[in-house]
Amino acid sequence: MSIRITEDDDESGGYAFIDLGRRATAPLLSFRRQDAEPRHLGTDGWQPEIAWLEPMSMVERDGRTVARFGPAVVDRIEELVPIEIVAQDGTSFGVVSWPFITPAPAGRGLLAATPAPAPSLTQTMPLGAPAAAPPPDEAAPPTEIKPAETELPKRDEVTERPPPLTTPLPRRFPIALTLVLPALLLGGGATAYLYRDQLRAVLADRAAHPPTTTSAENLPTPAAMSPEPPRLSGAELRQRHAQLLQERAGASAFLALGGTAIEAQQGGAAFRAFEEADPVTSADAAWQIARFYDPRNAEAPYRDAAKPNVARAAYYYALWRNRSPRHTDELRGLCEANTDLVGRDERLRAICRP
Length: 354
Fold this sequence. Notes:
Distance between the termini: 36 Å
Shape: elongated
Structural class: alpha+beta
Radius of gyration: 41 Å
Strand content: 5-15%
Oligomer: single chain
Largest sheet: 4 strands, antiparallel
CATH architecture of the domain at 234-352: Alpha Horseshoe
Helix content: 25-40%
CATH class of the domain at 234-352: Mainly Alpha
Strand order of the largest sheet: 1-2-7-6
Order of helices and strands: EEEEEEEHEEHHHHHHHHHHH
Low-confidence stretches: 107-140, 145-150, 155-159, 165-169
CATH topology of the domain at 234-352: Serine Threonine Protein Phosphatase 5, Tetratricopeptide repeat
Number of strands: 9
């Protein structure tokens, strides 16, 4: 049986179980990368000399040894790096393409950002801010402010308002208005008499056919409206992931789980689901994982889960080049947008070569 590496979901990142595929007789293991030098993983990183590392635990399951390692190993091995695992007695368990494992929160993993520090209880003054006021004992004594003294004029000095220069004339009722007003009143009465019957007909029609109004009783209540389904938490998504693994579900189930995780803004859970769908045999899985590494993709779930990496994005796009138009087009666009990097990276140049 081949080696199988799975993330320890009981941790927040940086821990993994390594199923060696068969029973191990030696307690120490060596991790040897096959793509670059130095190739041996030691306690302080990659080194030229061979190093034997002790797992945090080793258990036997159905005749196979499962070793558990922490951030000292998990955070130092990048995804897709071919790793040979060898026991101290010389037994080689084979070469495995290292999967994506969420790094420890304070580790040097693939996550785009480390947790933000806790806010300080003291506030730092920005540059250019005014200086703080001195303590009460050093402050200058307050200056007594006296209200302005306003002398009111004496009673005998108040002068009365002078009389108006002109005396208003008494109002006279215009003669023309006395002649026009009766005519207006007579005309208004005649008009009301002529349109009385029409007014009655309009009022009767409105009484028989009242206008339609929307009342509060006819409006749908909030309970009747279909609410948006709640987003799943990271723990719920991990539980579903474990259940699908136990059921040996197919790629379509993991693709659906990955889509649910994207909607829930859980990029790490989505990445693991798409990876389980196998990007080599699933074009959709390869597309989604490529989007995690594509620096042109600015969507939050993708950017929060993985750092942009042009070479890795190109690798996953290239898995379906010439078989999927969208993979081929995105690979071409990615390579054209990073010509300087393609010129410096031999591996990337080989992937981008038509």
